[in-house]
Write a structure and sequence with these properties.
19% helix, Alkaline Protease, subunit P, domain 1, 24% strand, nine-stranded mixed β-sheet, alpha/beta, 506 residues
Length: 506
């Protein structure tokens, strides 16, 4: 378990999830991602890979702290390869417009050979300034700049191990003058790139960090370059690695074959330096997943078993939490974000907390508890015996059918007057918190002597006053004394209220 400091506070991370597209290649669903329970969530910055479909700042805010709970949300970005489905790709770069086609004279110098495993992508000379300018720049028009501005907590950097390709694997025909002479030089250039883009992001968000995917041996390949090792560790929040336990040629469900050399170097270079290791293997089936989780946790890593390499659906976290928290017909515990939310509890006896924002909460069928929070909220209990907490703000409360309870437990004032519609003097009750209504009486039923119907108190014992002509409900701390009565609710006119409609609660 680790803790990350983000722009919205500290987040404890015990599990993670990873999704780059919707099921069967459909766009990502913001509503589902907001409901995801994963502590650390890696997604693409756009619904479908295009700039036009980037997630909004409000959507990202809800993903970070919404229905699914608090999360660190990281945007995926490939810094070691260019993909034909990204908006920066120009069809004139290759003879047929696709990455696998032959390069033309229009291709930028930084564009390298095709990735044989992912032919829609080509390696890039990541140290080239023109490539880096596409990612981030002083005008803040790069892909990286866009998701930093939108509010992502971190960047998930893919193809970091491209440094090893250029340092040790690139063929002579793929090389150009100025390419890295060896693995150490390639590693140094990759570290410089990662450190530079992180420092750039921290000018906007000082808490921003990056998670490189793969490149487990980059610290080793830096050799004696202690300055770059220190800078790299200062930029990253951790490291992610693929296929460390179930590695092989198949896309999914390779044989169990833990890569002990990689595991050991991850422990030495990252865990020992306080950097968590996020392990993802592409497996399905209960037995495989259980074994993977057991081994990864034993090594001190945070595991995620992705069902397939297409990363088109989220799997459940390793610790047994559901994939999503969403309203059902059962008894749910639901929460909103810090923004304005609309939540329908459906059937079941639900607890719905709107938190901040001007929320609309509907309990539906069942005996529900609705909590408005700090905004001007609209709460509807629906069928059943419901309990409605308006909270701060000017709220609209409707119990609907059933014996409903309306709770007043926040500081009174002109900006905190709730409207209760269709209050039933026969079935409904108003609860008054004794921390707020300090002079209303002891915790119990409101005394009959403390209630009065009229425009003002008629004796010193009156505390709760209902003006039948206007529907206004007041609290008077000293009855006919000098303290002015304070309105705290608006009810329907001409109700037959009595003291029995009120309880004092502790």
């Amino acid at each position: 378990m680790v803790s990350f400091t983000t722009s919205s506070g500290k987040v404890t991370v015990n599990n993670w999830g990873y999704e780059l597209q919707g099921t069967n290649g459909n766009p990502l669903d913001a509503g589902l991602l907001i409901s995801a329970t994963h502590d650390f969530l890696v997604i693409d910055s756009t619904r479908d890979g295009s700039n036009a479909e980037r997630f909004t700042a409000d959507e990202i805010t809800r993903m970070k702290d919404g229905m699914g709970g608090r999360s660190v949300v990281a945007s995926y970005i490939s810094i070691g390869e260019a993909a034909e489905f990204r908006d920066y790709w120009k069809t004139t770069w290759t003879s047929g417009g696709e990455a696998r086609d032959k390069l033309t004279s229009n291709a930028p110098d930084w564009l390298g050979p095709v990735n044989a495993d992912w032919p829609e992508s080509r390696k890039v000379r990541y140290w080239d300034k023109d490539w880096q300018d596409l990612i981030f720049n002083d005008k803040k028009t790069g892909d990286f700049d866009a998701f930093v501005k939108a509010g992502f907590d971190a960047a998930y950097l893919d193809i970091v191990d491209a440094y090893y390709f250029w340092g040790a694997e690139a063929s002579a025909k793929d090389r150009q003058p100025g390419d890295p002479a060896n693995t150490k030089q390639a590693a140094q250039r990759m570290v410089d790139f990662i450190v530079a883009l992180t420092e750039h992001a921290r000018k906007t968000n000082p808490d921003f960090f990056v998670i490189p995917q793969n490149g487990a041996f980059i610290m080793e390949d830096l050799g004696s370059d202690s300055a770059r090792k220190k800078a790299y560790l200062g930029a990253i929040g951790g490291i992610a690695v693929e296929d460390v336990y179930y590695g092989g040629e198949a896309d999914e469900n390779n044989k169990l074959n833990p890569d002990r050399e990689t595991i050991d170097v991850l422990k030495k270079d990252f865990l020992a330096n306080g950097k968590p290791v996020f392990a993802v293997d592409y497996i399905n089936g209960t037995a495989r997943i259980d074994e993977f989780n057991k081994l990864a946790l034993k090594d001190g890593f945070i595991p995620y078993a992705a069902p397939d390499r297409d990363l088109d659906r989220l799997a459940a976290p390793h610790d047994g939490d559901p994939v999503f928290i969403r309203p059902t017909d059962k008894n749910d515990s639901l929460r909103g974000s810090q923004l304005a939310d609309t939540i329908d509890g459906l059937a079941g006896s639900d607890r719905i907390d709107g938190r901040n924002g001007n929320d609309r909460l509907d309990g539906g069928k069942g005996n529900d508890t609705l909590i408005g929070g700090s905004g001007n909220d609209k709460l509807s209990g629906g069928a059943g015996n419901d309990k409605l907490y308006g909270g701060a703000g000017q709220d609209a409360l409707a119990g609907s059918s059933g014996a409903d309870i309306f709770v007043f437990d926040t500081k009174l004032g002109a900006s905190n007057i709730d409207t209760i519609s269709a209050f039933s003097a026969k079935d409904d009750t108003i609860w008054l918190d004794d921390d707020i209504f300090t002079k209303a009486g002891k915790v119990d039923d409101l005394l009959s002597s403390a209630f009065h119907t009229g425009t003002k108190a008629h004796d010193a014992s009156d505390r709760i006053i209902y003006d039948k002509l206007t529907g206004k409900l007041f609290y008077d701390a000293d009855g006919t004394g000098k303290t002015a009565a304070v309105q705290f609710a608006q009810l329907d006119k001409n109700l037959s209220l009595t003291a029995s409609d009120f309880d004092i609660i502790g």
